[in-house]
Design a protein that fits this description.
This protein is an alpha/beta fold. Helix content is 33%, strand content 21%. The strands form three sheets. Strands 6-5-4-7-8-11-10 form a seven-stranded mixed sheet. The longest helix is centred in the last third of the chain and has 27 residues.
């Protein structure tokens, strides 16, 4: 395959086999026509950029029935409240005399972050192609365009609105295949010296934890500081700072400025060379990652088979998109996991993509099982606090449990 950013030929490092849509929770009659694609992964190790070889069409994944609602985790709700505070601080510090401040969020989902910007009376706009979640954001008084963000759309936004001081995005840039077009669109939209701030699951954490479940149809990329620096510089956006976050099992927030003369922070300079020291700029790190995926695949399924042989009751906790990769790659279905509990009303009563494990409401966590597979492992702190009276075992697919 060719790298989507630089166009060079890049090698395949692993295939996770036939995979369905990560968020394609199904009603029983739809099982027959389910869509599958081969989910193989390549890497451009020159810039530490992991990418899917093939991604389904965006319209297949993001539509008027998108299954993920940002407000399902209290921890994340709080995270986005704090994010809004940080954006407001940047606006005040960097643009004190600007009376025409404007914030645009890409992939704003149900408006969990912009809600706080609107409340402060600052002009803002959400761009969110999944109509069902965009509607919720409208209900919070947030103007939201329900379209895919692109350079073309950035021109349209400029016709009706104005240049932005801050463009923000969480867990969405890794979803957008045309990365060069995306970088150009952000650059277009920003004022000079404006900030592009975005966060996504961090490749360094995925390699370290072997959290391969961050790879699914929607996540066409896993980024690093080196890849972001390289991709966005071509469009006049300078990576000036990075901040590691605990969200989604380890994420990186990138701060870019529309001014190529800006300085890199000391922590960014350190992180860029740290990635090199970790081997992220050479192919061997990815080959080792692929080997470790195979180790945990075997260990995960063996543990479930053993639990079954021991007559243990096993259920899943959190019907995440990530669990789709695990269940299909490890070939685990309802014969090993009775059902998965989830708090999202639109997932309840459906079946998981590909392996068709029933999704049940959270009430079904009681009577407690003997073993719970924590598919929402990225929300472990929040969930373990909530389930402090659960005396059974927890397990995940993560590498540390199988070495
Ligand atoms: O990047 C993406 C992230 C932001 O969200 C999207 N592509 C899709 C989605 O990924 P995910 O489905 O893996 O996200 P979460 O946040 O790990 O999903 C958690 C799931 O677990 C939700 O369905 C809600 C559920 N849940 C629950 O049942 N009880 C969550 C919590 C915190 C709980 O206590
Ligand atoms: N920012 C939220 C939602 C992340 S889920 C959060 O962190 O919780 C990814 C979101 O990006 C979905 O709501 C999806 O509809 C949206 N999305 C996908 N492709 C997009 C694109 N090209 N432009 C804008 N949003 C997009």
């Amino acid at each position: 395959m060719k790298c989507r950013s630089t166009g060079v030929d890049i090698p395949r490092i692993i295939t996770y086999g036939q995979q369905p849509l990560g968020n394609g929770f199904l009603d029983r009659p739809d099982i027959e026509d389910e869509y599958f694609f081969e989910m193989a992964v390549g890497v451009n190790s020159d810039i530490a950029l992991l990418q899917l070889e093939v991604q389904p069409n965006p319209e297949q994944m993001f539509h008027d029935n998108y299954a993920f609602y940002s407000r399902t985790s209290n921890f994340m709700v709080n995270h986005f409240n704090e994010t809004a505070d940080e954006i407001i601080e940047i606006l005040e510090e960097d643009f004190p005399k600007d009376n025409d401040k404007f914030v645009v969020e890409i992939g704003s989902n149900d408006g969990v972050m912009l809600e706080h910007i609107v409340k402060k009376g600052i002009d803002c706009l959400g761009v969110e192609p999944s109509e069902n979640v965009a509607k919720i954001s409208n209900q919070y008084g947030i103007e939201t365009i329900s379209e895919f963000f692109s350079t073309e759309l950035s021109h349209k936004i400029l016709e009706s609105y104005k240049n932005a001081n801050v463009v923000y995005a969480a867990n969405v840039f890794c979803h957008i295949p045309e990365i060069n077009d995306l970088a150009e669109a952000c650059s277009n939209l920003l004022k000079d010296n404006g900030y592009l701030i975005f966060e996504d699951p961090y490749l360094g954490d995925v390699i370290e934890k072997v959290s391969y479940d961050q790879i699914y149809d929607e996540h066409v990329y896993l980024f690093s500081c080196n890849s972001i620096k390289s991709i966005f510089a071509k469009y006049g956006l300078k990576l000036v700072k990075c901040k590691h976050l605990s969200t989604h099992g380890g994420s990186m927030r990138y701060y870019l400025k529309k001014n190529m003369d800006s300085d890199e922070s000391t922590s960014l300079i350190k992180q860029l060379s740290h990635e090199d020291h970790l081997g992220m700029l050479s192919i061997e790190a990815y080959q080792k990652f692929a080997e470790r995926c195979e180790v945990t695949k075997i260990g995960f399924k063996d543990r479930l088979i053993k639990a079954k042989e021991d007559n243990k009751r096993v259920i899943g906790y959190g019907a995440t998109s990530k669990s789709t990769t695990i269940l299909n790659y490890c070939d685990v279905g309802p014969e090993l996991i009775e059902f998965i509990t989830d708090t999202t009303p639109t997932k309840i009563g459906k079946f998981t993509p590909g392996k068709h494990v029933p999704v049940k409401s959270y009430d079904y966590f009681e009577p407690h099982p003997d073993l719970a597979v924590l598919f929402a492992w990225n929300h472990k702190k929040e969930i373990l606090a909530k389930e402090s009276n659960y005396m059974g075992e927890w397990m995940t697919h993560l590498y540390e449990e199988y070495v």
